[in-house]
């Protein structure tokens, strides 16, 4: 067995975020590679479990000499659910405030979710990390880099934004799909079918998802946590936090942004705006990519991320 084929060590556990005045949160994580190597922290997006960070990506980075950590955000996967917490304001009212660039009252904020990421780093013994975030995870990652620069070596951002006014404007087909009436008391298979269709709608025209692999991933995610309320609280966190443009402008870490031209959720103009906000950020627009991480682009992702890691280490 050559080096490229050797099994990558993997470990799982729970980190804890306990702060006075805040609900305690338990965060499930998985590590790849040696803990003595430079750490790469992967932060996933809204309603998305850590499994959506491709295992192939995690293992390849580990083979290249990095300690890779992916985790479930609060209210998703195997991490704590903050049941009973909800925003008191109506969704339309909060959306109006979001479009005006104003924050709203919320059960918790993206700043709280950034503190979860710090708790994971503390637990795995990583004083600092290359932080890579996707979608909402990219928003959390921006706050990490802006507010905790001593913990961040570099920043990798996939299809995200600074929650500027009108930044999150899903295309009509996405709005129509999610407006469909769900069946009452759906079965496991019906919910998994809905998962699969939702991710298919997120893919770009050049990078359709592999249906069998996607179904297996959706089955695994449903079996880990079928709760639909947690992602709504995560959405509250995005809406309630409001614009983080001022934070993005304070980032002084090497940053690479990867955004698909076909992203139906966070349009490519948002990635372009973010690249202007973050000093020195490098923007890669991938023609035909949507709001997913296609496996066929794995080599490209690894190349761009590791080049950015090297900028931090230079």
UniProtKB/TrEMBL annotation:
AB hydrolase-1 domain: residues covered: 38-293
Domain of life (superkingdom): Bacteria
SUPFAM superfamilies listed in its UniProt record: alpha/beta-Hydrolases
Keyword Nucleus: no
Recorded GO MF terms: triacylglycerol lipase activity
Key words, A-Z: Hydrolase
Gene Ontology BP, a term: glycerolipid catabolic process
Protein name: Alpha/beta hydrolase fold protein
